[in-house]
Amino acid sequence: MKKLVIFDLDGTLINTIADLAQSTNHALQALGYPTHEQDSYRFRVGNGINKLFERALPEGEKTEENVLRVRKEFIPYYNAHNTDLSRPYPGMETLLAFLQQQGIQMAVASNKYQEATAKIIPYYFPDIAFTAILGQRDDCPIKPDAAIAEEIIRLAGVEKADVLYVGDSGVDMQTGLNAGVETCGVTWGFRPRTELEQFAPQHIVDTAEQLKAIILS
Prior knowledge:
The chain is α/β, with parallel strands linked by helices.
């Protein structure tokens, strides 16, 4: 049985794509740029919001200055609307409650900026005592750098052999690989199974029940 499970946020614990798409489109529209269909954002998120904005901007407009302009419009809007349409994935609330009952530590490692990460997780999982809820911060490189996972492992006081890293994207699989921990991809998130398979994680699951079995094994 694992002693610590590190979860990605977007696409793993919570389906946040509608709020991310709506907020990015709001920012783009405010600046006179074309907007995008919600489903297309599944392939724009995952590497932090600055990369999201760069991917959303039109060709020829992907400058650092324009990214910061979009960010200025996005942040206040997303802070006010990041729980409008987002919802936990089926089975995740039950799984987290069960893991807590078993005394298994849980943590969140996200490339979402810290302010939003620290708001969203307690909003949707108010009864779960996470060991750490960490998002993107200026003093920590974004995933797939292993720094955020290694910080959580130190806080939890466990050995890497007792850790499972869970995520829905290639970025997550690479993060687990870089951290030297057992890694599990989930297929219900934003990216296809084929992307997960490219990084050869130890596990790929389709349901929360399958994930639970791996954690307990």
